[in-house]
Write a structure and sequence with these properties.
The chain contains 7 helices and 3 strands, in the order ααββααααβα. The protein is mainly alpha-helical and about 160 residues long.
Length: about 160
């Protein structure tokens, strides 16, 4: 199993290589902390649906703007609402992923990367979503979204 930091770093590496032949600049990257949080949520849900297991063990909590992996939020909060580039953080954490997970994340990236951060937020805020069942108009703020609810989540 991977951890959320490895998955996040892998997705950020992919984002930072978009539209950039030499992979040294951020190219067409639009991944902010907000978008990355939703990508991590949907990656977890898709992986659970495909394998019956978690992609990473780090908890996902219900925050105001949707599901959040607190460990990753803390790691990247210094980037604010700006696009996260390889100039902001080290992306070497992705190096420990196995090939099966990389293959899954490549497939996942192709399916989800074109959605905007706010489009992903809207999807996580649907009335029947795991986030809405936990967040409950704020009374469940920062409560963990259980595995059983993640298994029931809809994908895009």
């Amino acid at each position: 199993m991977s951890n959320a930091k490895q998955v996040a770093a892998y997705l950020l590496k992919k984002a930072n290589s978009l539209g950039n032949e030499d992979k040294s600049l951020s190219g067409n990257n639009d991944v902010t902390n907000l978008k990355l949080q939703k990508l991590l949520y949907f990656a977890q849900v898709e992986y659970i649906k495909q394998t019956g297991k978690k992609l990473f063990d780090d908890s996902i909590q219900a925050w105001q703007y949707g599901p959040v992996v607190p460990k990753i939020y803390e790691w990247l909060k210094g980037c604010g609402g700006y696009v996260i580039t390889e100039f902001d953080i080290s992306l070497e954490a992705a190096d420990g992923l196995n090939e099966d997970i990389k293959k899954f994340l490549d497939w996942f990236w192709d399916k989800y990367s074109n959605y905007s951060a706010w489009g992903l937020v809207q999807k996580t805020h649907e009335p029947s979503s795991p986030w809405s069942k936990v967040y409950k108009d704020g009374s469940g703020d920062k409560q963990e979204i259980p595995f059983e609810l993640l298994k029931q989540a809809e994908t895009l």
